[in-house]
Amino acid sequence: MKKNLSKMLVLLFVAMSLFTACSKGEDSTKDDTATNEATDVKKVGEGEVYTWACQYNSLPLFVNNDYIGMDLIAEQLGVEVRKIGPQEVDLPAFIAAIEQEIAQKPDGMMVVGWDASLATAIDKAVAAGIPVVTVDADVPDSDRLCFIGTDWYQLGVEQAKAVAPYLEGKTGNAICIGVPGGDNNQQALRGYTDTMTKLNPNITVEQKVYDSGSNAQTVASVVANLIQSDASLLAVAGFDSSAGPGIALAIKEAGKIGAIFGTCVDAEAEHLQGVKEGSLVAAVGQKRHFFTYYGVRMLFDYNHNNIKFTKDDVGAGISNIPTYISTGFIVATPSNVDLLIEAAAEKAK
After folding, report:
1. How far apart are CA 230 and CA 217, in angstroms?
2. 145 lies in which domain range?
3. pLDDT tens, position by position, 172-199
């Protein structure tokens, strides 16, 4: 009996060993397959160069977000991403940089469309055979293939929704500040106005975007002057990254926390601090990593995917990639700002 039991135990041990070995072999095969697939993708993209074109392109907002997205996808696809554009807001220099890049014949180009006049440069690139997508801000009247970024009308909606509870039962005025020439800022103004009219009909939104100069000190000065000149001012909305810190500073220095309510686009550390101290009631963050991640992805897919709708899609004017990708929001409010501040601190390390 003992001998039979010993034999059974030995057989059981051998069977378990064989099963474990087979399982490891299967897992190894799966790992090898995944590695091979990733390697194959990199081989497809080997030697390809994609360009990201933006004004003020070393802004910490971009470095801590947009750069991360494009560098990550570049590594995954085995391509190079080149970053071009002036180190300040300089539209003529930006257009010149795009036109100079056309001569380099990149495999695709992402353009941050802060101004409608960029359409001419974008169309020149497309005519030269370079696929172009817009990211962050759109130039819808150009020949770009796709826009990837924030739905700016909805961004205005989100800011109005966030401030609405603080304005309930009040009568007064609201103003917006950002980049007046940007189509995206005009969309945000419409979204803010439409939503404010529905939620707080006694609040009048001035139908202009004051110029931020893309500088927080300029914003603070403009808003401070408006606070002094308009006793009915109750809300200020910001539509570019510099706006939030400037709005917060002006409201704080005027002693108007709890009397004038600020909102802004972006939720970086400096915007979150305004929410934390109460000079901003909300910071509407963009999911910026997605702008450039999917920007490169769309250009790569345009060059390589096999999706066809007809036997001559190009002749029929049909694109093989989406035309609009909305990347959504992260809305910072007093209820979640501590968690977001913690995340921003980790990102900055």
Report:
1. 20
2. 48-149+288-302+314-328
3. 999 999 999 888 899 999 999 999 999 9
